[in-house]
Write a structure and sequence with these properties.
This protein has 295 residues and is mainly beta. It has 1 helix and 29 strands. 3% of the residues lie in helices and 51% in strands. Strands 1, 3, 4, 6, 7, 9, 11, 14, 17, 20, 23, 26 and 27 form a 13-stranded mixed sheet that branches.
């Protein structure tokens, strides 16, 4: 069933902090029916297999939850999915702090499928104080059905555990619209980890990556596919591994090689001087990391 015009503000939504059962949720809008005009603001959402679960009905016209704002919440101690989206128009998912439970070997900070993200800004996704091995922050079919504006994914921090070996800082796949990925900072130290993985195999839109600060010890940027347009400029692509990026199966060991493949002639490779990666990705120094102001 659907529901409309609901605001939940400054509440504590507490699920079982130890459950590994897939029927436990901090917040749950289940399959079937759609919701409109929903706001979750300033809440503590804690525990469950899912922290926040929000699902509409279908990709058909009228099948998406609409006018959804998820802002300034703390989403903590979820077991497998901190945030799970399916069939949504998300006006804003911003200024949230996501801290998964220490326990399982894999975790999705965000699993978003067939959901339009108009503003995903200023969030912190951190497994820094866990031993989670594989961490994913994944957006599939962003701006794909029923979208009405560009997507902005900006000023987010993604921090993986020092004990991790794999995962994705941001996984972006399939778009019909413009997805602007700006000013994000990603730390993914695993030897098989990707900073930003962009799948352009479906869709006729554009992924534009600019001013991102990425430390990923496998590939800072990995791009595959030729249907969607890919643009990269003014990013910091740092790795202690062999490559700064991969472009359509061509592994690039230098910025020159990356530029020859991608057309990106402005990105740099500088080791970010983070103050304390267990707490945030604030920099002690930004020497070598200046970039244009984006409008």
């Amino acid at each position: 069933a659907g529901c409309d015009n609901i605001e939940i503000r400054n509440c504590k939504l507490l699920a079982n902090p130890n459950s590994t059962e897939s029927n436990t949720y901090g917040f749950n809008k289940p399959t079937g029916g759609v919701c409109n005009n929903i706001r979750l603001i300033g809440n503590l959402i804690s525990g469950g297999y899912y922290g926040l679960y929000l699902r509409g009905a279908s990709t058909a016209v009228g099948g998406y939850n609409t006018n959804i704002y998820i802002d300034s919440n703390t989403i903590e101690k979820a077991y497998y999915y901190s945030v799970y989206y399916y069939y949504n128009d998300l006006n804003s998912f911003s200024y949230n702090k996501v801290y998964p439970r220490d326990g399982g070997s894999s975790h999705y900070n965000v699993y978003s499928y067939y959901s339009n993200h108009y503003r995903t800004v200023g969030n912190v996704f951190s497994t820094a104080k866990t031993s989670i091995n594989n961490t994913y922050t994944s957006f599939y079919y962003t701006q794909h059905f029923n979208y009405t504006a560009d997507a902005l994914i900006a000023n987010n921090e993604v921090i993986h555990s020092e004990k991790s070996t794999a995962g994705y800082g941001l996984y972006m796949a399939y778009t019909q619209g413009m997805v602007k990925i700006y000013n994000n900072t990603i730390y993914a130290p695993g030897s098989s980890a990707y900073g930003i993985y962009v799948n352009c195999n479906t869709g006729a839109g554009t992924f534009e990556l600019m001013n991102n600060n990425i430390w990923a010890n496998n590939y800072p940027i990995y791009k595959t596919g030729t249907l969607a347009t890919f643009v990269s400029d003014y990013n910091n692509l740092y790795s202690t591994g062999a490559y700064v990026g991969s472009y359509n199966a061509v592994n690039c060991a230098s910025l020159t090689a990356w530029g020859n493949q991608s057309g990106d002639l402005t990105s740099v490779r500088v080791a970010p001087d983070f103050l304390d990666k267990t707490e945030s990705l604030d920099l002690i120094s930004n020497v070598g990391l200046t970039c244009p102001i984006l409008q």
